[in-house]
Design brief:
The chain is α+β, with helices and mostly antiparallel strands and about 350 residues long. The protein folds into three domains: about 110 residues, no CATH class; about 100 residues, SH3 type barrels, CATH 2.30.30.60; about 80 residues, Alpha-Beta Plaits, CATH 3.30.70. The protein contains twelve helices and eight strands. A hairpin with a 4-residue loop joins strand 7 and strand 8. Helix 5 packs antiparallel against helix 6. The protein is elongated.
């Protein structure tokens, strides 16, 4: 009878302890979240409920396994499996907890900060730092799992002795990967590019959507994704339209006839920008910036709050000014002056030469 009751008591007690610990932790976090709604940490920590229950369940089974007398022939193997599972569950819980703490700190900072560029910078740093922490926890957990095997502890001394040579060989073999890794850290803490920045790379304009330790993803205006190694941004020039502020000035060029009514166009441009929701109210202007024998170059400038608004404002100005010119001042559109082609001169006829011979 005891052979049946002991396993049931151990397993049932472990499951009961797991459910009780999960319920108690969730209850406490709910109360803390209700008392301090301005702090999102308690709500985020509720994501750790499943990893916490896994740790408690595996730790209880590992601690009371010897009293259960279950599958004694395979006891060493089962204990080893439970130990490995406990290390993995503890690493999972640590990753979830650190992620909740970091995300809570960022959320509180983003809610109080007024500089959106600085918020994007902190977000990029937090994201990459969290990835580094996750990688470190994974490496430590894997090392701890390996050290639970007696054979690995025996080989540990020789592995440490050859670590220098192995490190050199691995560094040479993974030169590109390590370069991207350090480039990712340089981007995160050097404030070169941030998540949400609007950049131009290889002639493509888009928004930085994701930054990892090895690659960066840019979402273009037509919903495409450009993925490139982060080392690109540390070795090649690129345009960052969001650095130093997101405000931009859009320019629209017109090639018109010399008789174009510049003053009337300037008045019409003022009417257009004042009605446009893309204009940020800072400035607008229209001026003649160039001339050719047949046309003049007219440039219209309009300011906007960001690159998207600048693009919208440029399209509105271009469309409405052209429509207005066609309807009110068609003579201002560029024209090509032509005339009748002159006929080529007629070829002169060749007269036969006559030789007069005088006879005496």
């Amino acid at each position: 009878m005891q052979d049946v009751l002991r396993p049931l008591i151990v397993v049932g007690g472990s499951l009961g302890l797991t459910l009780a610990a999960g319920w108690a932790a969730d209850r406490l976090l709910r109360r803390a979240d209700a008392r301090h709604p301005e702090t999102p940490l308690w709500g985020l920590l509720r994501r750790c409920r499943i990893p916490l229950q896994a740790v408690v369940a595996i730790a209880a089974l590992r601690g009371f396994y010897d009293q259960a007398h279950l599958a004694e022939d395979h006891a060493p193997t089962i204990r080893q499996i439970l130990t490995l599972a406990l290390i993995a569950a503890a690493a999972w819980l640590t990753v979830r907890g650190s992620a909740a703490a970091v995300e809570s700190t960022y959320s509180r900072y983003a809610a109080t900060a007024h500089d959106r560029a600085r918020v994007r910078r902190v977000r990029t740093q937090v994201t990459l730092t969290q990835r580094v922490v996750t990688a470190v926890i994974g490496v430590v957990a894997a090392a701890a799992m390996l050290l639970t095997f007696p054979a690995m502890r025996t080989v540990g001394t020789s592995m440490l002795a050859s670590a220098g040579i192995v490190g050199i060989v691995a560094g040479i073999a993974a030169q590109s990967t390590l370069g991207n890794l350090f480039a990712g850290l340089q981007i995160a803490f050097g404030d070169m590019v941030r998540i949400g920045d609007e950049v131009v790379v290889d002639g493509e304009w888009g928004t930085v959507e994701e930054i990892t330790l090895t690659f960066l993803s840019v979402r273009t205006w037509d919903e495409r994704r450009i993925t490139m190694p982060v080392s690109y941004f540390t070795s090649k020039p690129f345009e960052n339209w969001s650095r130093g502020g997101s405000q931009m000035t859009g320019a629209v060029l017109f090639h018109l006839d010399h008789s174009a009514p510049i003053d009337r166009m300037r008045e019409k441009l003022g009417e257009i920008v004042r009605k446009s929701s893309a204009w940020d109210g800072r400035d607008w202007n229209l001026a003649v910036t160039g001339t050719t024998p047949s046309t003049i170059e007219v440039r219209a400038l309009v300011t906007a709050r960001d690159a998207d608004a600048a693009w919208t404002a440029r399209c509105e100005v271009r469309e409405q000014l052209i429509r207005w010119l066609c309807a009110e001042h068609p003579y201002a559109l560029p024209r090509i002056t032509t005339g009748p082609a002159a006929a080529p001169p007629a070829p002169r006829s060749v007269q036969p030469q006559t030789t007069h011979v005088e006879l005496s």
